[in-house]
Design a protein that fits this description.
single chain; 178 residues; mainly beta; Immunoglobulin-like; six-stranded mixed beta sheet; 2 helices; 14% helix
Length: 178
């Protein structure tokens, strides 16, 4: 996973935690999963942005992404056959044609205590693959909504079997189209 500050310079997890408190990567089990591949510091609109890519690097369209914060009024994720539920309730949105979705956030999204971190956890919802997540997301008080608020997920295949299956399918499809 790579971490970038607002100027685009690569930083460390220690830098992220020193600046924004108790930010935590939630690691999903399995070789094939939605891996958290990048976290970008943002300044500006009060918005958590997520982008999701498939194993070949193309945007995942209509991919559900979850944003949890402490609110019992959030929709339940129970009974959905999901591989990963870092929390049982979340606001869920679909990615667009470029693999993006964005969640507007408000005054309850500030990081008030660095030991606690921010109130948000974001991850990808899927019945097929588990997903890493980022917990402790939020905006730093006294700033123009500065925070680790742009996350990028990509399906990774640590075993190679998914890529092999995809290649075989493409070769089969090309043979049919000839």
């Amino acid at each position: 996973m790579r971490i970038y500050d607002v100027q685009g310079n690569e930083q460390s997890m220690d830098w992220l935690r020193a600046r924004y408190g108790n930010v935590r990567v939630l690691e999903a089990p399995g070789r094939v999963r939605f891996a958290l591949v990048a976290v970008h510091e943002t300044v500006g609109p009060a918005l958590i942005k997520a982008q999701v890519f498939g194993v070949e690097g193309f945007p995942q369209v209509d991919q559900p992404v979850a944003n949890h914060w402490p609110d019992e009024g959030l929709p339940s994720l129970e009974g959905g056959g999901l591989k990963t539920k870092w929390h049982n309730r979340a606001c869920v949105q679909q990615t667009n044609s470029n693999g993006y979705t964005g969640f507007g956030i408000g005054t309850g999204s500030y990081i008030n205590d660095l030991d606690v971190g921010g109130p948000h956890t974001v991850w990808v919802l899927s019945p097929s693959y588990p997903s890493d997540g980022l917990a402790g997301m939020g905006m730093l008080g006294g700033t123009n909504h500065a925070g680790p608020l742009f996350v990028i997920f990509q399906v990774v295949d640590g075993s190679g079997w998914l890529r092999l299956l995809l290649r075989r399918f493409v070769l089969w499809l090309l043979k049919i189209l000839r």
